[in-house]
Design goal:
Blueprint: H1 2-6, H2 8-17, H3 19-22, E1 33-37, H4 40-54, E2 60-64, E3 76-80, H5 87-95, E4 100-104, H6 110-114, E5 117-120, H7 133-145, H8 151-160, H9 166-169, E6 174-178, H10 181-197, E7 201-205, H11 206-209, E8 222-225, H12 233-238, E9 243-246, H13 252-269
Length: 287
């Protein structure tokens, strides 16, 4: 997992430099789009959907694979699946007549034959059960499709690999928050700690955090915000005694890289194997 985390800056640059090769199948501005995935892939879909709408590219919804609303019309459905074998997303593609674009890392997987178009990111595949670089490389591709320049994001990710995470890994509990497209990143950061370190984490939209979840904030715990903090948010959290984590000078995806590293550090400190979390497999395949 640590080795795969460290490859992310180069992978984002590869996507940026070769976007024409990878991104031609993705939806165009003005189209109505649904983005779908399970687990980590769903959180990347959430980030893409919010960012696409905020950039004025068109109405975009995000769904977990099992929750896609039958009968709703879209110009395209973007389906994200590292393994290409996840039951819920394969069932969705089989059941819909809508145009589907799959993003996967596994050549020869069922999703390649089922989807109308496939974007193969096999160079970003992983040995670890826990996703890191495939997810962020997929989001880098989706951001590039919206016209975003990833040069600074990749440079920030390089910086993220040098940040000391030892003290962050000692926090008893961390709640991750974001706004708009970074809410998906918050959910993903929380999932990394739960998967790799069996840790108690939570994730919320930043503005909703003060409507209850702030009650668990205290000394020895942390609140990690992705992107711009809402007015007075940092002061309100600091007043609880909790540690505020806010990489205001980094692209939010680079802050996610730091969070991935914290998950590994916490896992190793607990004597766990971050590559093989308990009860998890590379893909959820149902009977």
């Amino acid at each position: 997992m640590s080795t795969e985390i460290a490859t992310q800056p180069d992978l984002w640059r590869q996507i940026s430099d070769g976007f024409a090769q990878y991104g031609g199948a993705l939806p165009k501005a003005g189209q109505r789009v649904a983005a779908v995935g399970c687990g980590t892939s769903w959180f990347m879909a959430m980030a893409y959907a919010a960012l696409r709408e905020d950039l004025g590219q068109g109405e975009t919804d995000a769904f977990a694979g099992s929750e896609f609303p039958a009968g709703r019309e879209y110009d395209a459905v973007v389906v994200i699946s590292r393994s290409g074998t996840t039951t819920e997303v394969l069932d969705l593609i089989r059941a819909t007549d809508l145009p589907t674009v799959a993003i996967t890392a596994t050549p020869g997987s069922p999703i390649v034959d089922l989807a109308d178009q496939t974007i193969m990111l096999d160079f970003a595949d992983e040995q670890s059960v826990v996703q890191t670089r495939f997810a962020t490389t997929t989001l880098a591709l989706l951001r590039a499709s919206l016209g975003q320049d990833l040069t600074q994001a990749a440079a920030d990710a390089q910086t993220a690999l040098t940040i000391d995470v030892d003290e962050l890994a000692k926090l008893e509990q961390v709640t991750y928050v974001g706004t708009r497209w970074t809410v998906g990143l918050a959910h993903e950061a929380a999932l990394k700690q739960r998967e790799a370190a069996s840790a108690w984490t939570e994730a919320y939209p930043a503005m909703d955090y003060r409507h209850g979840p702030i009650a668990i904030a205290q000394t020895g715990r942390g609140v990690w915000i992705f992107g711009e903090a809402p007015a007075n948010f940092l002061d309100d959290v600091a007043a609880t005694g909790a540690t505020v984590v806010h990489h205001a000078d980094l692209d939010p995806m680079a802050s996610l890289v730091v969070a991935q590293r914290v998950a590994v550090a916490k896992s190793l400190a607990l004597g766990l194997n971050p590559d093989q979390p308990r009860s998890l497999t590379r893909s959820v395949i149902l009977d």
